[in-house]
Design brief:
Blueprint (H helix, E strand, L loop, with lengths): L6 E2 L8 H9 L10 E8 L3 E2 L3 E4 L11 H4 L2 E3 L2 E6 L2 E5 L1 H14 L7 H14 L11 E10 L11 E11 L10 E6 L16 H16 L4 E5 L7 E4 L3 E8 L2 E6 L11 H12 L3 E4 L4 H10 L4 E6 L3 E10 L2 E4 L7 H14 L10 E3 L2
Parallel strand pairs: 1-4, 10-11, 10-17, 14-15
Antiparallel strand pairs: 2-3, 2-4, 2-9, 5-8, 6-7, 6-8, 7-19, 8-9, 11-12, 13-14, 13-16, 16-17, 17-18
Helix pairs in contact: 3-4
Bound molecules: pyridoxal-5'-phosphate.
Length: 365
């Protein structure tokens, strides 16, 4: 399948140039949407039907659609950037594969990786004028899949809808990179072994909202999840993975919770940073990290820096860790040198301004 394999139904009322430019002056995040979207239907027995590149618009759903009752809903998130005259995406194949794995976990039909990438390329090419040009801005791509069959029996649906739309995104930290404070939640659980923690599914987010609200009430910016079984191992922060920076033999050494528990979301940003660190000859270890170890290492000064990583913010420094037991400021509470250095390197790579030894940068068109 190629980018031309979609029926084209152009938006009869696209934004005017003036309207679009006004949006692009200050897009924020997830507030404005481009003129088009890709939609592809799946019908049991027929498979994925021919998709369409059509006007971004509300959809109609049967009130009995199983997504509204039993929650078969998954999504992804990745970005397109301007890069020396063209437009690129970053590791879209990794998002496509994760989308297929999320689908399998929720008993949904996996969308072929090449269809996912072709859909993104087609939409980006069509709405290329929506990719912002200012530093650190991007066009955020949001693919999703929902069960649309109108049937109340509890079983995997027989009909699905894949949608892909795009939203221009401003620089995440417009007033300079600011560290966040995090609340270690002992009251709520994000994911348990055997559950859906490794799938990017809507239900995980629904279940996280009260914990995030609780973190705000405790004066923190973000919630940090610990494991469901022993209630002592750090898992992730909100919708981002976490990394800890130590020093070993005069070099930085990264430590991040490992994926073997099957309860963490395997982030593309996480994987990219582990690879970049190893490319530099740093140690990057995936292992369990307990709350006790973390707070002891902050208190002793052994832990030098901490940050969270994910597509939306790339890297967010963590300045303060709080729990029901106390509060711990990491080093001087300011963004660390290694954190900011990795952030810069990843952004350079994503914007096509740095060498790309792993072939992560995907040219659109
Ligand atoms: C999407 C997501 C991440 C980050 O993944 P990236 O691929 O780096 O954007 C981390 N944790 C959760 C829970 C997520 O949903």
């Amino acid at each position: 399948m190629t980018a031309t394999d979609f029926d084209l139904r152009p938006n009869p009322r696209p934004h005017s140039d003036a309207e679009r430019l006004k949006v692009l002056e200050s897009p924020g995040f997830g507030r404005f949407f481009t003129d088009h979207m890709v939609s592809i239907r799946y019908v049991e027995g027929q498979g994925w039907l021919r998709g369409a590149l059509e006007a971004y618009a509300p959809i109609t759903l049967d009130p009995a659609a199983s997504v509204l009752h039993y929650g078969q809903a998954i999504f992804e998130g990745f970005k397109a950037y301007r890069a020396d005259g063209g437009i690129v995406t970053f590791r879209p194949d990794a998002n496509a594969r994760r989308f297929a794995r999320s689908a399998e976990r929720l008993a949904m039909p996996p969308l072929p990786v090449e269809t996912f990438i072709a859909a993104a390329d087609a939409l980006i090419a069509r709405d290329a004028a929506w990719v912002p040009t200012a530093p650190d801005t991007s066009l955020y791509l949001r693919p999703l899949m929902i069960a649309t069959e109108g049937v109340l029996g509890v079983r995997p649906a027989h009909e699905y809808l894949f949608l892909l739309f795009a939203s221009p995104a401003g620089a995440y930290f417009s007033g300079g990179v600011k560290p966040v404070s995090v609340w270690i939640s002992e009251d709520y659980v994000r994911a348990a072994p055997g559950g859906t923690g490794t799938a990017k599914c809507a239900g995980n987010y629904a279940a996280s909202l009260v914990a995030q609200r609780d973190a705000l009430a405790k004066g923190c910016d973000q919630v940090v999840w610990i494991d469901a079984v022993e209630r002592k191992w750090i898992e992730e922060m909100g919708g981002m993975n976490v990394m800890f920076v130590y020093e070993e033999g005069g070099k930085p050494s990264l430590v991040t919770p490992d994926l073997s528990s099957g309860t963490l979301l395997p982030g593309v940003t996480r994987d990219s940073l582990l690879t970049l660190a190893r490319d530099r000859g740093w140690r990057a270890t995936e292992r369990r990290v307990s709350v006790d170890e973390l707070t002891a290492d902050i208190a002793s000064g052994k832990l030098k820096e901490a940050f969270a990583c994910g597509t939306a913010a790339v890297i967010t420094p963590i300045g303060l860790v709080k729990s029901a037991r106390g509060a711990w400021t990491i080093a001087d509470g300011q963004p660390g040198k290694v954190t900011m250095d990795l952030r810069h390197q990843l952004l350079e790579l994503q914007h096509g301004r740095a060498p790309d030894p792993h072939g992560w940068v995907h040219r659109v068109g």
